[in-house]
Amino acid sequence: MTKKEQELTEVPFWFDPLCPWAWVTSRWLLEVETVRPVRADWRIMSLAYLNLEQREGKGLSDDYRALMEKAWGSVRVCAAAAEHAGKDVLGPLYTAIGTRLHNQRRREDPTVIPETLAETRLPASLASAATSTEFDRLIKDSHNEAFDEVGLDVGTPVLRIAGTALFGPVLRQAPRGEAAGQLWDGLLHVAATDGFYEIKRSRDSKPSFE
Question: What is the pTM assigned to this prediction?
Answer without folding.
Answer: 0.88
